[in-house]
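Repro:
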Amino acid sequence: MKVQKSHLRLALFILGAAVLFSLFNYLRPAPRTGERSAPQAPLIAASAGAGGQIDPLSIRAPVDVDMARVPSYTRDPFLFGDETRDIVRAALGGAPDAGPAPSVRSILFSSTRRLAVVDGKIVGVGDQVGVYKVAEIEQGAVVFSLATGERRRVSVHGAVPAGLVR
């Protein structure tokens, strides 16, 4: 099929018209909105008593929050994936519980280095993970010690937080 000159002229004319139309819409001044017929009154004046004043005693008090009780929701919206947060309630009294053992995800074990990924952080022997201290790093597990002297051995992927599905 051969393109005729008339087709080319028509296409160039349509292209030029589209460019001019776009420029006209882009460069024209914004349409003016009409002036308001009457100023709008604030919404609070409709609910206020005489004289537009609000009685402070008519405002409901906020709901009481009991800080001694653990919230009823089970998921912390500020944590991602398998992260956990141990909440120590010192105000309730009693010694803080050590809680579940940390989650060991990976271990680097060689003759010169021993590192592990625990709760998303790279740790070595002697590092602190919450209330736990890394006592040993073995080929398939990490041994943690508490301040009380108790030792816990956690294998790779051994301690998964409650409610988490692998």
